[in-house]
């Protein structure tokens, strides 16, 4: 069987091939493509029973019909989130779907703090200046994090890792989630209402999945509650933040800084080289004009440790499919015969 993987990054491919070679020992071939799966590229999967996909692939009902019509029977998502997959359509088409339920939480949590520190201490602007031998400190003053308040929205594995780092800085911890995490309580975290957290926190970091009830969780009303000098960090999913509302807030001169590793309309942009093209996404272009906003291209997870865990879990998911097994990573089980 030949397995095809879409949206494979150059640094990811050697790890992906090594893990699959070790797992299957030549029983299955792996074809790696830089293409992202969408309505235009879905026909290229014809003849491949197993397709490896990613968070920026578009797997709506139309794409899934094309895949199923071409012989695909299993989708292995190389990510935790699955909001890009129409699971109802997949089940109706008899497609098995699996994901990577978890991987190194430290990769994302550490990167979230890297964004927060870079924004707080104006590191990107400072580095740009020194490259031009401008060594002034004007406009580069930041704030100590010690003694300030970190608001952690979502206290699962990543949110907890983020909270531990905040605790190390000597910060007060506020949390919001549907259930209280004992590990966070042990750090001294106080769970509060969402509105209270937004109003009190100096740094707000988002660590919840994108679901119907979390879409635009940070909207105009939420942003209005935040302190004028608060820092907002999103390393989870772009749809958690209402970009238009964020632009209006920034235009009003509010928020001390924003660090975004994800963006609402990142599909078709992130992971691609658009440097020689006209940027037609006006909202993203406008975000880039604010000197207190730092945007990175969904790289928070991108450490060797995390990627190795992701590809190893993906290989196990394929092994489970071949063996007719289901597990914690299964989103849509194989159809009943």
Helices, by number, come to 12
Strand order of the biggest β-sheet: 8-7-6-9-10-11-12
**Helix content range:** 25-40%
Helix/strand/pairing category: alpha/beta
Task: Work out the strand percent.
Answer: 5-15%
3D shape: globular
CATH superfamily of the largest domain: NAD(P)-binding Rossmann-like Domain
How many strands? 13
What is the averaged pLDDT score?
96
Return the CATH topology of the largest domain.
Answer: Rossmann fold
Task: Summarize, please.
By secondary structure, this protein is an alpha/beta fold. It is built from twelve helices and 13 strands. It has helices spanning 13-24, 61-69, 87-92, 105-120, 123-131, 157-169, 182-186, 194-200, 220-225, 243-251, 282-287, 304-323; strands at 2-5, 29-32, 50-53, 74-77, 96-98, 149-153, 172-176, 190-191, 203-206, 231-234, 257-260, 293-295, 330-332.
Q: Describe it for me?
A:
The protein has 337 residues and is α/β, with parallel strands linked by helices. It has 2 domains: 2-103 and 303-332, 3-Layer(aba) Sandwich (Rossmann fold), CATH 3.40.50; 105-295, Rossmann fold, CATH 3.40.50.720. It contains 12 helices and 13 strands. It has helices spanning 13-24, 61-69, 87-92, 105-120, 123-131, 157-169, 182-186, 194-200, 220-225, 243-251, 282-287, 304-323; strands spanning 2-5, 29-32, 50-53, 74-77, 96-98, 149-153, 172-176, 190-191, 203-206, 231-234, 257-260, 293-295, 330-332. The strands form 2 sheets. The chain has a 7-stranded parallel β-sheet with strand order 8-7-6-9-10-11-12, sandwiched between helices. Helix 4 crosses helix 6. The longest helix is centred in the C-terminal third of the chain and has 20 residues, at 304-323. Residues 22-329 form the D-isomer specific 2-hydroxyacid dehydrogenase catalytic domain. It is an enzyme of class 1 (oxidoreductase).
């Amino acid at each position: 069987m030949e397995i095809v993987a879409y949206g494979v990054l150059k640094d990811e491919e050697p790890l992906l091939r090594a893990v699959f070679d070790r797992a299957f020992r030549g029983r299955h071939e792996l074809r790696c493509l830089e293409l992202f799966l969408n309505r235009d590229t879905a026909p290229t999967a014809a003849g491949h029973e197993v397709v490896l996909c990613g968070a920026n692939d578009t797997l709506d009902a139309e794409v899934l019909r094309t895949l199923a019509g071409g012989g695909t029977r299993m989708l292995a998502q190389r990510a935790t989130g699955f909001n890009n997959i129409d699971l109802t359509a997949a089940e109706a088409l008899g497609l098995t779907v699996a994901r990577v339920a978890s991987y190194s939480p430290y990769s994302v949590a550490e990167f979230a703090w890297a964004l927060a520190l870079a924004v707080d201490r104006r590191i990107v602007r400072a580095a740009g200046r020194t490259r031009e031998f401008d060594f002034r400190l004007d406009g580069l003053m930041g704030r100590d994090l010690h003694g300030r308040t970190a608001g952690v929205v979502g206290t699962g594995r990543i949110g907890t890792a983020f909270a531990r780092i905040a605790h190390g800085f000597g910060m007060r911890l506020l949390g919001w989630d549907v259930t209280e995490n004992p590990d966070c309580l042990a750090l001294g975290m106080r769970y509060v209402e969402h509105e209270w957290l937004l109003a009190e926190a100096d740094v707000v970091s988002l660590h919840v999945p994108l679901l119907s009830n979390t879409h635009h969780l940070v909207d105009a009303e939420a942003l209005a509650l935040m302190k004028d000098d608060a820092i907002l960090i999103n390393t989870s999913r772009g749809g958690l933040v209402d970009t238009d509302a964020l632009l209006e807030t920034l235009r009003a001169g509010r928020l001390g800084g924003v660090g975004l590793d994800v963006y609402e309309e990142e599909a078709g942009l992130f992971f691609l080289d658009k440097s020689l093209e006209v940027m037609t996404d006006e909202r993203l272009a406008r975000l880039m004009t604010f000197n207190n906003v730092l945007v990175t291209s969904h790289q928070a997870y991108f450490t060797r440790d995390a990627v190795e865990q992701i590809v190893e879990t993906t290989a196990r998911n394929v092994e489970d499919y071949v063996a007719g097994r289901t597990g914690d990573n299964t989103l849509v089980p194989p159809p009943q015969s």
